[in-house]
Amino acid sequence: MSAEAAVKYVTETPESEKERVAAWINTEEYKELNFKREALVIAPPHTCQPLGAELVAHAFEGSLPFVHGSQGCASYYRSTLNRHFREPAPAVSDSMTEDGAVFGGQNNLHEGLENAIAIYKPKMVSIFTSCMPEIIGDDLVAFLKNARNKGIIPEGMPVPFANTPSFNGSHIHGYDAMLLSILQTLTEGKKVEGRCTGKINLIPGFDANTGNFREYKRLFAEFGVPATILGDISDVFDVPCDGTYHTYPGGTKLDDAADSINGKATLSVGPYSATKTFAWLKDNYSGKHAAIPMPLGIAKTDEFIKKISELSGKPVPESIKNERGRAVDAMTDSHQYMHGKKFALYGDPDQLLGYVSFLLEMGAIPYHILCSKGSKKVEKEIQALLDSSMYGKGCKIYMGKDLWHMRSLIMTDPVDAMIGDTHGKFACRDAGIPLFRFGFPIFDRVNKHRYPIIGYQGVINMVTEICNKFIDIKDETCEDRFFEMMR
Length: 487
Ligand code: SF4
Description:
The protein is of the alpha/beta class.
């Protein structure tokens, strides 16, 4: 008897059964069962808190992200950032294992800090936690106080830290917690009555598009308004390839971040991913404060531009007015390719609000809108946008749902395209529709993070990508007699 014949499979699934199930998961009956699912999440379109914390921990000059917790978790955040940007994401971990879980992670933290400071010579160490120390209740305040008393942390070195338990919230909440701690640490004792830097502080919120950061800086420069981006990843994750490795290639200067407390004004464009930071800052920072939506689409970019003008007291420059005109022209030239097209979209609240606004402006229909970690407030805000346009009629919002729910939605109630991150490609393949990758992470396309989607330039980029794809599909699928030079 051959070895193969001796193997008795525990279960055998006939081809006919596989085909039956493959067809059944596309039905209305399956969708109803899928939406009754309570105990299991399948492919949630969010990542865990520490990943968001790591993104912003990279965004300051000489800052070394330090994971207090498991090495495996640290590898996950690093590899996700590394695959998205195709750049190194240098961070360290104190590699807690079984003994740390039993006796607490203080020894790991102290040894890790000693090694990391000696080897990587950071200007600041930004500490955040994985699940393990959060579950056992490690006391970071006490651990860091002991580290200072033992001389492990050099005199004057800022060491902000954030508790980022992953069983609660998502990457946007970790981002918020880490940014808050960094600003609290750097600005401590730096407020000077009567001093004004004359600068506007910008809080971009969780945003993994380096092109967006360059666009923010360009727009401020067009205005002639000095600005400090609080958490600037543009040079950190878009490093020139010059043959030299830089451990800390960019980020907001620590002195600028410290002096941001004396700014002329502070503007947040991440109302849902920097909520706590902005709430603290309103009570502690000088000048005016405003939180507005991310500038995606024409209306939200108008709001952003007007707000800079209002906060700085400077008129909107002609060059920006011309940019707006060009974006509107690009939309007008191409609206017929998007008009009436149905979209499924998912992502973080700040981005989702922008996508919905932009699609409605183009006469497209944001039909299935899904957010895995939204709230009633986000839902209400999206619904208000839908109610403001005839193209919002019949569109539905799904809060607290995942990408397996989304698959059921697009298989039973089809759309023309999806907007999201790389994880949506499986459902899109099954449904035979294109995926527009504007979210995070994007692992399977190159250079997407270098193309801004914010501002008027972002409008042109999004319109161009979406409409040209629809035109490509037409060219690839139309009958010969409709294959035209002009589209
Ligand atoms: S969810 Fe928890 S265990 Fe999983 S990678 Fe994130 S921090 Fe680690």
